[in-house]
Amino acid sequence: MDWLYDRYDRLLAFLFEGAIQPLFYALGLMDWADDAFEWLDFFVFGAIQVAVVVLVCRPLELWRPVEQSQPRRLIRTDIVYTLLSRLGLLPLIGYVLFVAAAARIEGWIADAGWVPPTLETLLPWLRDWPLAALLVYIVVLDFFEYWRHRFQHMFGWWWALHSIHHAQTAMTFWTDDRNHVLDDVIAAAWVAGIAVLIGVPPGQFPLILMVLRLAEALSHANARIDFGWLGERLLVSPRYHRLHHGLLSAGAEGKNYAVLLPIWDWAFGTADFRRDVYPRTGDPTAPAAYVEGGWLRQQLAGFVCFARALFGRRPPPGDAPHPPAA
To answer: What is the tally of structural domains in the chain?
Structure first.
């Protein structure tokens, strides 16, 4: 970990001192240099995320694709989503903001004589086992991500936003980031708030984020891959999650919500472990803009659908028909 962080810090220093700082000096913007360094950090980490996901997922899609031919135009829209999301790094920004807010709140609480517990105060041995602590944090955050995903399907106003994600009929690993900006803001606040609440160290949060995002990207890959009878019950596979995007996506009756660990689906009765089933993806009830539109058109349509659902003008997602099987 220390070796990785040292190399990462050196890369940031090289880029900042070699390109950003001279540019800001020439433009007379040195008062903004510290802010520029922070945004460079966000950008570089996002670029690393994108590179890791492509290196892992693209060869798998080429090796065993579910769909041999997909409309490139639809995939390009998802690439735009990924670049805006990963390079913007809403979850990481949200975490930074929540850390600052949490520090102030904790100060107020400490002045009152009470210190809120974190996982490391409840389980002190985690302090001496950083790798074990990292795994525990991943499991806890994955549990809450499971419930966030279920809520996206349960509430009509949230489904109005999340349906953009399910409208993609040419699903690939790029589809992971196909979300409405409001949905991304909620997700960022959700994961960052929980991370702060359970005491995730700032140095570990980016790595946890990397693990969860890689798992999500892999689960959306256009790859005919499953992990076998046992593996499917330990980790979410592309086959397992494709069922969710095809046959099992409708409202509160949906299945296979898990992000990383299928145990949550098994524990709460939402698991479907059918094998060798690779349905077409998409939401036939979604507006045409969600399916065919570019990023901006989808975002604008999302605001309209969200407003209608918020005021009770759209049926709940459970009333929508299931997408057809291949």
So the answer is: 1
Report the candidate in 244, 241, 280 with the shortest Cα–Cα distance to residue 260: 241
Residue partners of 302: CB distance under 8 A and separation at least 6 = 160, 161, 164, 180, 181, 182, 290
The position carrying tokens 């922070």 is 38
* Tens-place pLDDT, residues 27-36: 887 777 776 7
In a domain, 324, yes or no: no
DSSP designation for 318: G
pTM to 2 decimal places: 0.84
Give the ranges where 89-129 is alpha helix by DSSP (H). Answer: 90-111, 119-122
The first and second tokens of residue 191, run together, are 């994961």
Contact predicate 196/106, CB 8 Å: no
Residue 276 is assigned to a structural domain of this protein: yes
Which two tokens mark 21?
């700082």
Q: Is residue 255 part of a domain?
A: yes
How far is the C-alpha of 82 from the C-alpha of 277, rounded, in Å? 27
Average pLDDT, the chain: 84
In the three-class reduction of DSSP (H, G, I as helix; E, B as strand; rest coil), residue 146 is classed as helix
Identify the CA nearest to 181 among candidates 301, 74, 100, 288: 301
Express each pLDDT in 44-80 by its tens digit. 888 888 999 999 999 999 999 999 989 999 999 999 9
Q: Are 67 and 170 within 8 A, CB to CB?
A: yes
pLDDT of residue 207: 85
Residue 73 inside a domain? The answer is yes
Q: What domain range includes position 216? A: 2-319
